[in-house]
Amino acid sequence: MQPIEIRPNIYWVGVNDRSTDLFEGLWPISNQGVTYNAYLIKDEKNALIDLSKETFTDDFINQLESLIGLENLDYVITNHMEPDHSGALLRLRELAPQAKFLGMNKAVAMMKDFYTIDQNVEVLKHEQTLSLGRNTLKFIYTPFVHWPETMMTYMIEEKILFSCDGFGSFGCLDGVLFDDETSDQGFYEREALRYYTNIIAAFSKHVLQALDKLSAYEVQMVAPAHGLVWRKDPERIISLYKYWASLATERSEAGVTVLYGTMYRNTERALEHALQALASENVPVEVFNVGLTDPSYILPELWTKQGVLIAAPTYERAMFPAMVHALNMAEIKGVRNKTAAYIGSYSWSGGAKGVFEGYAERLNWDVVGTHEFIGSAKANDLEQIRALSRQLALKSK
274-298: buried (b, 16+ CB within 10 Å) or exposed (e) per residue? Predict the structure, then answer.
């Protein structure tokens, strides 16, 4: 995409990344891609907000140079120092040595740590302002959305919030930039939820604190570092983030997320009875095979649904490893306060149930029941599985 003017003399100069397989080396984006959004403000003083990943430095610099001679760049605003935002920083320093790099105290320290840059930099303070001429920027410190140095930049006159990782999403921009241009806003909202649960969820308390700070400002446009620019309905993405952040401590919506793993289908066959029992109570159910599905796609359902059913066999006196991986991610991201149950088979020694109970205790899950069975599930096993599944469904409404 070419630079896009989002308001007079304010330009999107980002890039689409359609080639990275794993965002942060963890989260699959090969099908959706991601954007690295940056913004150029042309004024009496010219300012760049955010940069790009190092891999796309040439594309990014070309975007900038199509609008401005880099010798005329006065400020580089570093909302966030994570390398998907700051990777082009060294090249830009070489091409625009006169530009002053601005960031919160921890960001300036990271510039030195990551790139050995400590000259012509300035430490900003929360709510400090910077006049560019016609436009004024205000810097809002929003730590842990999602690193400790992260800030957002607010343009006072235009009421634009350059929100960095906040309000961002996975997904490339297929020829469109704004929320009112896309024919599939639902796609970006789903990818915003996946981005939130994969990247931001562990810091939900800090998201709510940031939202409290932002409530003092009228926002007519949200311009994040990833995904759509929200100009028609910026309140939509803000309200979604507020809701998702609230789920870290509040009860989630009705429904049961079922995670299962199986080696020789004994657990899978028993699960079919559990699913029928769940369905009989008319609750939404989403089923994931943890051996085939990356946790990236499981976390959104775990985060937003109240109930969790774990179905996994014992593996060498512990739990099926793919399920441990999924539950580890759930613990890292803080999937707490759920209503849960466990079923699973074992051969000569149990163990998976104990692993489940450890996760449930640490995550404050309300366990309605567990049932381990040896070999294949017998009639009595299936009766107990159906009963605990119905109870889980009722308590997950």
Answer: bbebbeebebbbebbebbeebbbeb
